[in-house]
Design a protein that fits this description.
The complex is a heterodimer of chains A (308) and B (514). Chain A has 308 residues and is mainly alpha-helical. Chain A has two domains: 213 residues, f41 fragment of flagellin, N-terminal domain (Up-down Bundle), CATH 1.20.1330; 30 residues. Chain A has seven helices and eight strands; from the N terminus they run H-H-H-E-E-E-E-E-E-H-E-E-H-H-H. In chain A, a hairpin with a 2-residue loop joins strand 1 and strand 2. The two termini of chain A are 30 Å apart. With 514 residues, chain B is α+β, with helices and mostly antiparallel strands. Chain B is 55% helix and 14% strand. Chain B is built from 13 helices and 14 strands. In chain B, the strands form five sheets. Chain B has a four-stranded antiparallel β-sheet, with helices on one face. A three-stranded antiparallel β-sheet of chain B has the order 7-8-9. Classes of the chains: A mainly alpha (308), B alpha+beta (514).
């Protein structure tokens, strides 16, 4: 359709052309300077949603990694404590074997008994190991010393019992919470001075010490079996700890892979292809210059006035 | 035929061409005036029929030169009406898009200071507290992260509410209406109606005295264009040259008389502003004509501040935020003091003095304006808890078993529930997680703004096209005017020449008679 051009109309048209080519140029220049093609949700609502979801996932996964890192140190402490414990049990078993297989005077046995007592003290020290200010073998009573010895000689476990809810959990992935602690009574047992009975490693060591003090050979050899059971218990708990550690390691690897994938996915969604944008920017610049030069010719050059 | 009549004809031609040059000059001087309609000069030859016909001399006698029929203002009523109509639609989308972009900016979650990053920090703090539940520092940072979530909710909600109130007033405060945009726009409408009525009156006056009123018509059309920016109009022309204006079927202006005005009143939360039609004396003619104001700036404000679920509204976005805030607070409060799993366990906090576990009774989140319902605007952290971070229930135990858990301050079972809430789907959030609900809301705003932008761009193109057509029909082309100028100049020169030739002939005649 033929449109009769008017002076004001032509001016407005030229102005609109300049403005719209400038707007195009500005959009591209904003993209190239920010490096983002989606800077507000309306730029690409679908991508915006994905970016938000990916951001949430990445920060969640990084949170799991933090959890694993923090907890790993506690697990390492627990594992090295259990490893020291095994050494102590083996030392006690060595002494007991020695005492059971040879004939020793009561004086020698008393000397051995004091060695066992010192092993027992070391065991109690291990049982009261703290990590980050918390007793690791107290169950959830983390501020309560796991084992105390009173004047009567009772060795009491003060933590939450392995029969009650004692576990502390750490989240290592969506909906997966891993228990990370073992209770003291599982590993170390306890001792009641009034009835002279004990359970677990403490009970065994106490009985061994008493048998050595009394020169009771049968008692000494009897404790050998118990010590070997206690060693198994310590190894079992240590294996469980190691299993959690290796689970952590696998999860860490999996999370790292996922984070890498998500990051590159996010980059695809929101980052510009710099070379493409720069090329477009250059062509937009040319277009803008062309529009401006056309406009200046239309507005000033082409008028009948120039020929009158 | 007489020489005198030739002189008269030439004289007439001089006058007519002068008048034509005046019209051209007027066109040239208004070449850059928006809304100016060019003047067309209509000339006709004059034939004097009373002279005796038939003879050649007689025929010559019948010629009486040129006359100026009129100086006509170029106009196209169809295009002009079409322009006003699309101008209303353009202005509607312009305002709507503008407000929607504003809303989008207010909750641009792609920036790093939004709600999703506040929630992320909150769950990060929950993770840290889960690792060391008896640690006072972890508790403090958990609470300050919760407080941060609340302030982000509060800020966005306040900004959105302020935006809505600056447009359509606060439904709870009648006085706020007078400073709102809708109120000043309604005042503008009434003002423009008055002005158009006055121009219409002047048009009647000048028409009756026989003068051309093209400047008045231009002025009136410009005023109607301003009015069409504010509301949809129906404009009908009268024979007197005046126009009537109505909103749909409701007459507002008849010729030089404004029959009805608009009035805006404070409504309720669903419709914050109500437009009524009132008579000159302030008597109510029609109440609530909101549904008829479908275009113009006023239409956009009514729609964006309204509650139509099929449209993008500020209240719709606020509702989503309120749902999220109330669900977030509700879920965490239930974990703190309730029994979300229904297994008879109790959330336990720490007695700061004795460092023993006690049952938690204080909620984490409370409405900070004392009202009963938690919204995005009033969500806050319970000051009792923020003053004593030990009151955060990180532990959860079964008190019915009789086991003494009073020292189990390392228990973090309740924090695992808090952490689980991040990945749980909630019915109140359309069976999505809190994070998904938020990103869906943001994406919905983005989609709406994108659609509005697209609509605006195409409406902009439509309006430009009509403007070009209208300008083509009524605008001034400088080259055309220059051509006309030369044309009339030459004609004037030629007429002057005729005049001098006749003068010479007359002198010859007089000499002849000596």
């Amino acid at each position: 359709m033929y449109i009769r051009p008017t002076t004001l109309g032509t001016t407005n048209l030229a102005l609109n052309d300049i403005l719209s080519s400038q707007a195009k140029y500005n959009t591209l220049s904003e993209q190239s300077s920010s490096g983002l093609k989606v800077s507000k949700p309306s730029d690409d609502p679908t991508a915006a949603k994905s970016i938000l979801d990916v951001n949430a996932s990445i920060s969640q996964l990084n949170g799991y990694l933090d959890n694993i890192n923090v907890t790993q140190t506690e697990l390492d402490t627990q594992e090295s404590t259990l490893s020291s414990l095994s050494t102590l049990i083996q030392q006690a078993a060595g002494l007991a074997t020695q005492a059971a297989n040879q004939t020793y005077s009561l004086t020698d046995l008393t000397a051995m008994k004091s060695q066992i007592d010192s092993i027992l003290n070391s065991v109690l020290d291990l049982a009261n190991t703290k990590y980050n200010g918390n007793y690791i073998f107290s169950g959830t009573n983390t501020s309560t010393q796991a084992y105390t010895v009173d004047v009567a000689g009772n060795i009491t476990y003060n933590g939450t019992a392995s029969t009650d809810s004692y576990q502390r959990y750490v989240q290592i992935s969506d909906g997966i919470f891993v228990p990370i602690n073992a209770t003291g009574d599982q590993v170390f047992g306890s001792y009641d001075a009034a009835t002279n009975t004990g359970i677990g490693l403490i009970g065994t060591l106490k009985a061994l010490s008493n048998a050595m003090g009394a020169g009771n050979n049968a008692g000494i050899s009897g404790s050998l079996d118990n010590l070997s059971n206690d060693l198994n218990t310590a190894l079992f708990i240590r294996t469980k700890t190691a299993a959690v550690s290796s689970k952590f390691e696998m999860t860490t690897n999996a999370i790292n892979t996922t984070v890498t994938n998500l990051t590159s996915y996010k980059s695809n969604l929101e980052d510009i292809d710099l070379s493409a944008v720069l090329a477009k920017l250059a062509s937009a610049q040319v277009a803008m210059q062309a529009t401006m030069s056309t406009a200046s010719k239309t507005l000033s050059g082409l008028s009948l006035l120039n020929y009158l | 035929m007489t020489l005198v009549s030739s002189i008269n004809i030439a004289h007439q031609a001089l006058l007519v061409n002068q008048a034509a040059i005046t019209a051209v000059s007027n066109n040239i001087s208004n070449v850059d005036t928006e809304g100016y309609s060019k003047l067309d000069v209509n000339l006709a030859s004059v034939i004097n029929y009373s002279s005796s016909a038939g003879k050649a001399i007689g025929r010559a006698n019948a010629l009486s030169g040129v006359e100026l029929v009129n100086i006509e203002r170029a106009s196209n009523a169809y295009l002009q009406n079409y322009y006003w109509q699309e101008n209303s639609n353009y202005s509607y989308l312009d305002k709507y898009t503008n407000v929607a972009s504003n809303v989008e900016n207010l909750m641009n979650e792609l920036k790093n200071d939004g709600l999703s990053s506040a929630m992320t920090s909150f769950y990060k703090a929950a993770d840290d507290l889960n690792s060391d539940p008896s640690d006072i520092t972890a508790r403090q940072s958990y609470l300050s992260a919760a407080d941060n979530v609340c302030s982000v909710f509060n800020n966005i909600a306040t900004d959105l509410t302020n935006l809505s109130q600056s447009l359509a007033g606060d439904p709870n405060n009648v006085n706020s209406l007078s400073s709102s945009e809708i109120s000043s726009n309604v005042d503008n409408v009434n003002n423009l109606l008055d002005q158009i009525a006055k121009v219409n009156y002047n048009i009647i006056k000048t028409n009756s005295s026989g003068n051309t009123s093209s400047a008045l018509l231009d002025q009136r059309d410009t005023l109607i264009s301003s009015l069409s920016l504010l509301m949809p109009l129906t404009v009908t022309a009268n024979s007197s040259g005046t126009v009537n204006i109505s909103l749909g079927e409701r007459a507002l202006l008849k010729g030089s008389i404004v029959s009805n005005y608009l009035e805006v009143k404070t409504g309720d939360a669903i419709t914050p502003a109500i437009i009524n039609i009132v008579g000159k004396a302030g008597n109510l003619v029609a109440s609530n004509v909101n549904s008829e104001i479908t275009a113009g700036k006023i239409g956009a404000i009514l729609d964006v501040c309204g509650s139509d679920v099929t449209k993008f509204t500020i209240s719709g976005v606020l509702d989503s935020l309120n749902t999220l805030a109330s669900e977030f607070a509700g879920v965490l409060n239930n974990i703190q003091t309730g029994d979300p799993a229904g297994d008879g366990t109790t959330g336990m906090c720490i007695d700061g003095a004795s460092k023993t576990l006690i049952a938690a009774t204080e909620n984490i989140f409370v409405p900070n304006d004392g009202s009963g319902v938690i919204t995005a605007l009033n969500i806050g952290v319970n000051s009792v808890i923020s003053n004593d971070p030990y009151l955060v229930a990180a532990a959860r135990v079964d008190l019915t078993t009789g086991v003494d858990y009073s020292h189990a301050i390392g228990n973090n079972s309740n924090m695992t529930l808090v952490l689980d809430s991040r990945t749980t789907d909630y019915a109140a959030l359309n069976n999505t997680t809190m994070g998904d609900y938020l990103s869906n809301t943001v994406s919905k705003v983005g989609t709406d703004v994108k659609n509005l932008n697209n609509n605006f761009t195409s409406q902009d193109a439509v309006l430009k096209e009509i403007k070009a057509q209208l300008s083509s029909a009524t605008g001034v082309n400088l080259d055309e005017e220059l051509v006309n100028l030369i044309k009339y100049q030459r004609a004037y020169q030629a007429a002057a020449r005729v005049f001098s030739v006749c003068g010479d002939l007359m002198a010859e005649l007089i000499n002849l008679g000596k």
